[in-house]
Design brief:
This protein is of the alpha/beta class and 162 residues long. It folds into two domains: 53 residues, no CATH class; 89 residues, Alpha-Beta Plaits. Helix content is 35%, strand content 15%. The chain is rod-shaped.
């Protein structure tokens, strides 16, 4: 019965297996080295500097504010504070045309000399974008003056005389 191979015969597959293992280890070492360089480069680039300037050969990364909500997810209350008939409804229609999700028109309780955009906490970026879209220069935090029914809107655009 000859089932076992004698030990005096060479095993050619062992040499091939060892060569492939050595090649795989060399590739793994090269990949780890490249990953280490990449991690160090990202760390060096993202590290803030004390003087406000980046070291030579790197770029500083600025802190990123939360991304703006898409216009389709923004509700705007447009109030007529200038007394011109249909001014708020016309502006609301234009905002809907620009892609805003909801734009509801109403009348302000008082007259305003200039137009402004008011925002709730966490909505300043969207308020500034709304102001750019509507051509309004004044953007400020909402101070709670609005009626209880109007509090569900994160942005309020008040149309004034100017």
């Amino acid at each position: 019965m000859q089932h076992a191979q004698p030990f005096d015969r060479p095993f050619p597959w062992r040499a091939a297996a060892l060569a492939l293992c050595a090649l795989a280890l060399a590739e793994l070492a090269a990949l780890l080295a490249l990953a280490g360089i990449r991690v160090l480069d990202v760390h060096r680039t993202a590290t803030p500097t004390h003087a406000g300037t980046a070291p030579a050969g790197t770029t500083a990364v600025k802190a990123v504010a939360h991304p703006l909500r898409s216009r389709s997810r923004v509700s705007v209350l447009v109030l007529n504070g200038n007394g011109v008939a249909h001014a708020a409804s016309d502006e609301a229609t234009q905002l809907l045309g620009r892609g805003y999700g909801h734009a509801i028109a109403g009348d302000a309780s008082t007259q305003y000399a200039s137009s402004l955009v008011l925002f709730r906490p966490g909505w300043e970026g969207e308020a500034r974008r709304l102001a750019r879209d509507a051509g309004i220069r004044t953007v400020t935090a909402l101070d709670g003056v609005l009626q209880a029914a109007d509090r569900r809107y994160p942005l309020v655009l008040i149309l004034g005389s100017n």
